[in-house]
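Cast an eye over this sequence plus tokens and walk me through the fold:

***
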Amino acid sequence: MAGVGGGNDFQWCFSQVKGAIDEDVAEADIISTVEFNYSGELLATGDKGGRVVIFQREQEVSLPSSSKNRPHSRGEYNVYSTFQSHEPEFDYLKSLEIEEKINKIRWLPQQNAAHSLLSTNDKTIKLWKISERDKRAEGYNLKDEDGRLRDPFRITSLRVPVLMPMDLMVEASPRRIFANAHTYHINSISVNSDHETYLSADDLRINLWHLEITDRSFNIVDIKPANMEELTEVITAAECHPHQCNVFVYSSSKGTIRLCDMRAAALCDRQSKFFEEPEDPSSRSFFSEIISSISDVKFSHSGRYMMTRDYLSVKVWDLNMENRPVETYQVHEYLRSKLCSLYENDCIFDKFECCWNGSDSAIMTGSYNNFFRMFDRNTRRDITLEASRENSKPRAVLKPRKVSTGGKRKKDEISVDSLDFNKKILHTAWHPKENVIAVAATNNLYIFQDKIN
């Protein structure tokens, strides 16, 4: 797979954007999660209004060979299904409102013609089945065509119902509801490699579920102290290993990652491996603990590495080396001098996600001002791109962006003081097999692809 841009690498170009153009963004329309399915043919988004929107890729258009100057037309993603996954609820025992916001979506491997996904808000996880219907049964004995019951005494002959073609209809139906297992807010769900179980994590506990069983789960991690005043860290993210169904990792607000093996004990209180980078005493400040908190952890597709995102950087860890990461990439180091103002406006607590490309050779994560960053692990090149409607002409090549940190600003650079911290890219996804990426910017979903000459 090609690199991330610059030099002789391919260039990223705009493909499409989904969402409203209105300046006034409704809170419910803000995208809160993005996820490709295993084949990359479907792309799901969840929003703060509890809705799930699934996009399906259209078939590629093969252009005639004579049209050399026309761009190659790839299949675009169009809306396939939209449904309300979660509704706002109220916990009467604790007098707490439970938001409908979708925190995470995870696809299950496709077993038949239907697709399945897990979606979760703060408290309840749901398993959805998305299926197509293009035929309907006609010719019932006890019902008229309009659905009314017929008088049994007027039925004089037996009819055999037949299937008649109809307009394609996509149905989303809840198959399982996994509730009442989390006291705190769910931050992660991850489907296991056995495709029968999955884990869900909140601030203090991780539970293991069977996809067929909704009334009980196994608590595999519990870091809640006997006295809550002794609480020093919380769980921020968790994920199952892509190939070993007994292995999972979870990250903490202290910047540490624990790898656990479920074969060792039923309750994984003691980790098998503990990943932590020693802190440089010279760079310690009031904000050190906050910016070292890990907001996302992702295994590589190969299962050899894992990637973590903290506030200022992305780190790649070799599972065989616990004392320090093998690669560290600075995402927006120019913000280090702005931490005080970022603390005052609460941006320092933003939780950025990260993702791998299909071959684990490149990684992507978001930043502010609708910027997102890509890093090529082989060439160590990096690039900053912007998700904006201003350069959203079809097939328009994205220009690399640069941030000026002081002194004389060059023509194409943007000053660090003029960055818009309300425009942030927290959620990104990379197609599992191709160079197609999805970037969520507030209420808009941008899709970019590599330019094909």
Q: What stands out?
A: Helices lie at 288-292, 339-344. The radius of gyration is 24 Å. The mean pLDDT is 89.
